[in-house]
Amino acid sequence: MSEAADAQPSNRRQIRSFVRREGRLTVGQSRALEQLWPAYGVEPGGGVLGLQALFGRAAPVVFEIGFGMGDYLVSRVVAEPGHDFFGVEVHRPGIGRVLHRVHEAGCRNLRVACFDAVEVLRDWLAPESLDEIVIQFPDPWHKKRHHKRRLIQPAFAALAASRLKPGGLLSLATDWAEYAEHMRTVLNAEPALRNQAADGGFVARPPTRLRTKFEQRGERLGHAVFDLAYRRL
C-alpha cells in the first residue's frame, strides 16, 4: 500500500469490523464522560496528530484497538508511567469506565477516541509513529458470510505495519481458533512484519496481557487462547 494512497480517505462505503452497541451508561460512567473527556478525549477533524504535543512529552506510544471495558488498558496505563497510551473504542460505557479508573489512579498518560480505529490509524496517525499496536479479542465474525468484516485483512496488516516504528510490536490475541489461523496467515504474508514465533505460529502469553474475566470464563468453557506477536522490519 503506497503512503499516497493510504493517506487519502476512500469514497467507497467502508465495511466496518464492529457494530455500535451503546448499552446502558451508569451514572458514574456518564459523569466521567462529561467531566473527563476534555482532559483525555481526542476528537476527529484535526488532521494528523502530533503525538508528542498530544501527550505533552516524548515517550513510547502504545495504541490499543477496541479496549472494551478497559481492564487491560488501565492495567498498563497504571503500571507503565513511562509509556503513553492511546485507546480507541466505540462502546461509550467502556470509555466512561476507563476514564474514571485512570483519573482515580492519577494517571495522565492516556488519550482515548470514540471512533473507527481503522480511520484513526489511517487519517490521524503519521507513518512510523507508534511503538506498539495491541488488538485483544477482536470480533471473529464467525459466520462465513461475515468474514469480510474481520479487522485483520491484508490491507489492514499493511496499514498497521506502516504506522509502527521500525522494531515496533503488533500484538494480538483471540480465543477463536479459526480466526487465529486467519490472523496468522494474513500477518505472516505481510512483508513489513516478522512473526516473533520461531516456527511462524503463535507465541506464549506476554506478561503485559492481563487475563480478563472474559478470558477466564472462556478457559473454563474449554476455549484456547492464541497470542500472536509481530515486529515491524
Automatic annotation (TrEMBL):
Domain of life: Bacteria
Catalytic activity as recorded in UniProt: guanosine(46) in tRNA + S-adenosyl-L-methionine = N(7)-methylguanosine(46) in tRNA + S-adenosyl-L-homocysteine
Residues the record lists as binding substrate: K143, D175, T212, K213, F214, E215
EC number, as in UniProt: 2.1.1.33
CDD domains linked: AdoMet_MTases
Signal peptide start-end: none
Pathway stated in the Swiss-Prot or TrEMBL entry: tRNA modification; N(7)-methylguanine-tRNA biosynthesis
Binding site for S-adenosyl-L-methionine: E64, E89, D116, D139
MF GO annotations: tRNA (guanine(46)-N7)-methyltransferase activity
Gene Ontology cellular component terms for the protein in this record: tRNA methyltransferase complex
Keywords noted in UniProt: Methyltransferase, S-adenosyl-L-methionine, Transferase, tRNA processing
UniProt cross-references to InterPro entries, sorted A to Z: SAM-dependent_MTases_sf, tRNA_(Gua-N-7)_MeTrfase_Trmb, tRNA_methyltr_TrmB_bact
Enzyme class, first EC level, given as a word: transferase
Keyword Transferase among record annotations: yes
Function description: Catalyzes the formation of N(7)-methylguanine at position 46 (m7G46) in tRNA.
Family assignment from sequence similarity: Belongs to the class I-like SAM-binding methyltransferase superfamily. TrmB family.
PANTHER family: 3-DEOXY-D-MANNO-OCTULOSONIC-ACID TRANSFERASE/TRNA GUANINE-N 7 - -METHYLTRANSFERASE, PENTACOTRIPEPTIDE-REPEAT REGION OF PRORP DOMAIN-CONTAINING PROTEIN
Protein name (record): tRNA (guanine-N(7)-)-methyltransferase
Species for this entry: Sinimarinibacterium flocculans
Designated gene of the protein: trmB
